[in-house]
Amino acid sequence: MAAPRTLRELAEYLGGTVAGDESKTVTGVASLDDAGDHQITFLANPRYASKVATTGAGAVVLPQGAERHGRNAIHVANPYLAFAKLLTLFHVAPREPKGVMAGAHVGQNVTMGSDVTIHPGAVVGDGARLGDRVTVYPGAVIYEGVTVGDDVTLHANVVVYQGCRIGSRVTIHAGTIIGSDGFGYAPDGDGFYKIPQLGIVVIEDDVEIGANTTIDRAALSATVIGRGTKIDNLVMIAHNCIIGENCTIVSQVGISGSTKLGKRVTLAGQVGVAGHLEIGDNVMVGAKSGIPGNVAAGSMLSGIPAYNHRDWLRVSAMVPKLPELKKTVAELEKRIRELEEKQGA
């Protein structure tokens, strides 16, 4: 457990300002409902502002100008970010390096930096290059010729195929496959001829990839995941895709081959993207949407096929009313027929 910190120290760490007792010490972080006198909590959603008055916390991280109800407080521009930093400070202990542990297999001509940990059951192939402070958990397999940067964590049963490159400060969670063959086949009579997938996958710096995700290698060049992008569990990214910087790709998204995403694109859960498309910067796509064509920068889309999100909201609000609307239209049609019959009589 981290050492106790005063609110003054925490405010300096977070870039905020203290209201109340600067000398008050806290030893950890908890929710508004559960925090005690020696813990700090936070308010990011104004819906829960009333809980600041009743929390048992010794201090609260608040947005600038928020009412503190007499509580010790640290005012910051982004309480949710401050919460993440406090959790890291108090509760995330640095790993102690353990070297190559018994039961791990390291191939020939492998280069490793300092403070590396290779757990039992992990495999590092010939000619691989690992940077400083790399951790490879049990069952993870690094094929031959893979390059891994500094401060990388590969969790249990991650597989990185031959020649792929992983940048620094990357975390890949259990069961994810990097660099499996792209889905490429040429028609050959009644069957198919496999197209050799000769490219690689490049994961740039500061990327995090969830569990059981698959990212296919390119046919000839590289499938690229841009710097700072965050990918959830159970995502499929096909061969030759280029994912821009700081994108957010949520669970069960599928992106077809040779599609290019710009910077800061958000794809919500179960979005499906067709192949050979371009999606511009700062696009947001709602859950379960289908993207059949190119998307202009700054667009906000939902639906199957996807269209303007605001229009989709209006249409969705009408759907429950359709049975009654159909009944009303049928009644109006009946009345019109009756009037026409009377006029023709």
Query: How would you classify the helix and strand content by structural class?
Result: alpha/beta
Q: Describe the main β-sheet briefly.
A: 12 strands, mixed
Q: Fraction of residues in helices?
A: 10-25%
Dominant shape: flat
Spatial gap, N to C terminus:
93 Å
Overall domain count: 2
The tally of helices reads: 4
Strand order of the largest sheet: 8-11-14-17-20-25-28-31-34-37-39-40
What is the CATH superfamily label of the largest domain? Hexapeptide repeat proteins
Query: What is the gyration radius calculated from CA atoms?
Result: 27 Å
What percent of residues are in strands?
25-35%
- The pLDDT mean sits at 95
Which architecture of the largest domain per CATH?
Answer: 3 Solenoid
| Beta-strand segment tally | 40
* CATH level 1 class label of the largest domain: Mainly Beta
